[in-house]
Design a protein that fits this description.
This protein is 60% helix and 8% strand. By secondary structure, it is mainly alpha-helical. It has a domain of 55 residues. The protein has a two-stranded antiparallel sheet. It is rod-shaped, with a radius of gyration of 27 Å.
Length: 104
């Protein structure tokens, strides 16, 4: 029995199987198969975004930066908010944006 021919057949078979698996993964991705994965990770990314925005706004408040606190817009879960939005629940921030113009 020709041993080299047998080894080549096994390696060729493995390469063909891997190629088919890659092709199936590409077809799955193109047809929108990863939407379910995105839907399961969205709550985690939205929470991380919310925490980052809250931290940035808290930092702007501590530094008394009215231009960032009053004018910068952030997007959380497709909703645009500013640091003075009560939903961010910033504690102890005394900055007021009532008489401040952003210059837009």
């Amino acid at each position: 029995m020709n041993k080299k021919a047998f080894e080549m057949a096994i390696s060729t078979l493995i390469i063909i199987i891997l190629g088919i698996l890659v092709l199936i993964a590409i077809i799955y991705a193109v047809t929108g198969g990863f939407k379910q994965f995105q839907q399961t990770t969205d709550p985690f990314t939205d929470t991380a975004t919310s925490a980052a925005v809250t931290q940035a706004c808290q930092s702007a408040c501590e530094q008394q930066s009215k231009i960032i606190y009053c004018c910068s817009e952030y997007e959380i879960d497709n909703v645009k908010i500013k640091c003075n939005d009560p939903r961010l629940n910033l504690q102890g921030c005394a900055l007021a944006c009532t008489d401040f113009e952003c210059g837009e």
